[in-house]
Design a protein that fits this description.
Number of domains: 1
Largest sheet: 7 strands, mixed
Distance between the termini: 11 Å
Shape: globular
CATH topology: Rossmann fold
Structural class: alpha/beta
Strand order of the largest sheet: 2-1-3-4-5-6-7
CATH architecture: 3-Layer(aba) Sandwich
Length: 205
């Protein structure tokens, strides 16, 4: 089967965003969603925000990580006083560029003195963005003051896994699974085609 089309990639972000907003962050009273300025990241963020708002009726806000204005963004988020910040870094931007922006966003958060739970998108985590960021002592110190979470996926079982993440002083990680969310067959099939270019044997196509 062919790889996903661009339209399918957008729809995949809608399905994934729904899981994030409706289930993963629905216990928070106020959530900030942060994404780079690209279509894919904004699509998943908007889907998560909409699902969160529909489920909770609480408050959310979207912030764009502009590489030329990160300190201003961080200050705006600090004034918003979110209980959680969801970092939606991935999308179609080249990954090394995305990793630099992610690192610099965390540095801006540290300078702003942000205090909130941080939820990291699987794409930037899987690409080593967080692993590289904690090599910076300022970021490591900032993250040690906030609760950190990351969602990952078990593609073969059709699950999203929600994990708390503990960072040691040497920068090593420990993941602890705190929840798992089954996805639909359609969602699992799209995930596998998008990420691994394969179909699932247990999906009746």
């Amino acid at each position: 089967m062919a790889k996903t089309t661009f339209a399918e990639e957008i729809y995949l972000r809608a399905l994934t965003g729904k899981v994030i907003g409706e289930q993963m962050v629905s216990e928070y009273a106020k959530v900030a969603f942060v994404s780079p300025k690209n279509i894919i990241c904004c699509a998943i963020s908007a889907a998560a925000e909409a699902a969160y708002l529909i489920r909770t009726g609480a408050r959310a806000a979207h912030f764009i990580a502009d590489p030329d204005n990160l300190d201003h963004m961080a200050q705006e988020i600090q004034r918003f006083l979110p209980e959680a910040v969801v970092l939606m870094f991935g999308g179609e931007t080249p990954i090394e560029e995305t990793k630099r922006l992610f690192l610099n966003t965390l540095k801006a958060f540290a300078r702003a003195g942000l205090e909130a739970d941080l939820v990291v998108h699987v794409r930037i985590f899987a690409a080593g963005g967080l692993q590289e960021a904690v090599k910076d002592p300022e970021i490591l110190n900032f993250l040690s003051r906030n609760d950190l979470y990351v969602y990952t996926a078990d593609l073969d079982q059709g699950l999203f896994l929600y994990n708390s993440l503990h960072i040691e002083r040497d920068g090593s990680f420990h993941l602890h699974r705190i929840a798992e969310f089954p996805v639909t067959l359609e969602h699992a099939e799209l995930l596998n085609r998008s990420l691994r270019n394969k179909t699932l044997k247990w999906v009746d196509l």
